[in-house]
Each structure stands twice: as C-alpha cells, then as structure tokens.
C-alpha cells in the first residue's frame, strides 16, 4: 500500500521512510516509530493500517535500512544502543512530522517499544506535534522529564514487561499528573510487544485491538 520516500531533516540532511496515504485528501498525519528490530514489515503494516483509518502515515527509518530478525535480540540491542534517541527525535522524527504537516495538517506521533520511548521524547521536543501515543515504551529520566511533555499523551503498557517495567511506567505517569499534563495510561495483562502480530509468542489479539481502538479514537479527537 505504501511507498518508500525521502524527506528532509531540520538540519538539511536527507532521511528515508515508509509513507502510506489516506484515501481522502487533507488528512491529518501520524508519524509511526519502529521497534528495535528496525523498519520491519510489521511497522509498515501498522503504517498502512493508520492510512486505512484515515491518516497520512509516515514511518522514518531510524536504522537506515537495517532490519534485524526477530530471533536476534542481541543484534537489535546493538542497533538500538547505537542510536541517539534525542537526535532521532529532533531530526528524523521531527523531519517526518514536518513532512506530514506541510499542507497544514495536524500531526500525531506514535511508536512501539523503543519507538514508544522516542514518541514521548518527541512529545517534549517537537513543537509541531499535536498529540502522541506510546505503546509499551517510556524514556529514561535523563532523556525527558514528565513536566517537559507538551502535548496530550496516551500510553498502552504491558503488566508483564521486563523492558519498560510497570514501576517505571507508573513513575512517569505520576510525574505527568503532578505536572498537570493531559495524559491517559492503560495497562494490559499481556507481554511486552503485545501488538506485534508477527511475534506469536507475545502477541495478544484482544489487548492489541483494544489498544488500537483507543489510539485511533484519541488521534481522531485531537487531530480531527
């Protein structure tokens, strides 16, 4: 459904990504951030799904063409650890937001796992954003403080998660509420990455569909 494109980062460098357009013109936009596996077929299918839901959707390729097989967590960790999350948010992700916003559209940001953490960084550091939805990812306290978040934020988190633990999620949520930020966090009795239907060992269809419906409703409310 979608196609590979190039777009400009704020610093003028070129970035690449996967774009899927909604059937109607003048649609709001959603930027979709990858897991630590790279710009996989799963992320492309989610980008297509946002387009079918009525959004122009763009997934920037943060690993520059590298896609790690699901069985190789060590290689995925190596790729993720070599990525500067702040630069990725302020350059590649912001460039994608600016690309979708070029016709005056409202733009939201979402991401999964690593991409969920970068989503919240973007919610604090990208001025063109209108709303954000994080799937099972929160940034480190050094990267972003809850009080820095600028836009309404929705989060979907797993109760069985050793990567982004329930304790870390609750601490971030409490910080958001203390700072009187607009936020709503949902927990699911599921494993980390429960929305990834290509990983049968962790995919939970009921939780994934419930989270998806909530995310779409949230974006339609805030983006139009």
CATH class: Alpha Beta
Estimate percent helicity: 25-40%
Strand content: 15-25%
Question: How many structural domains can be distinguished in the coordinates?
Answer: 1
Strand arrangement within the widest β-sheet reads 1-2-4-3-5-6-7-8
For the record, the CATH architecture stands as: 3-Layer(aba) Sandwich
State the fourth-level CATH superfamily. Answer: Alpha/Beta hydrolase fold, catalytic domain
Number of helices: 6
Protein name: Dienelactone hydrolase domain-containing protein
InterPro entries: AB_hydrolase_fold, Dienelactn_hydro, Dienelactone_hydrolase-like
Pfam family, one: DLH
Organism: Afipia felis ATCC 53690
Protein model, in words:
The protein is an alpha/beta fold. It has a single domain, classed as 3-Layer(aba) Sandwich (Rossmann fold), CATH 3.40.50. It is built from six helices and eight strands; from the N terminus they run βββαβααβαββαβα. The protein has helices at residues 41-52, 73-81, 85-100, 114-125, 166-178, 205-223, and strands spanning 3-8, 14-20, 29-33, 56-60, 107-112, 131-135, 153-160, 183-191. An eight-stranded mixed β-sheet has the order 1-2-4-3-5-6-7-8, sandwiched between helices. The longest helix has 19 residues, at 205-223. The two termini are 23 Å apart.
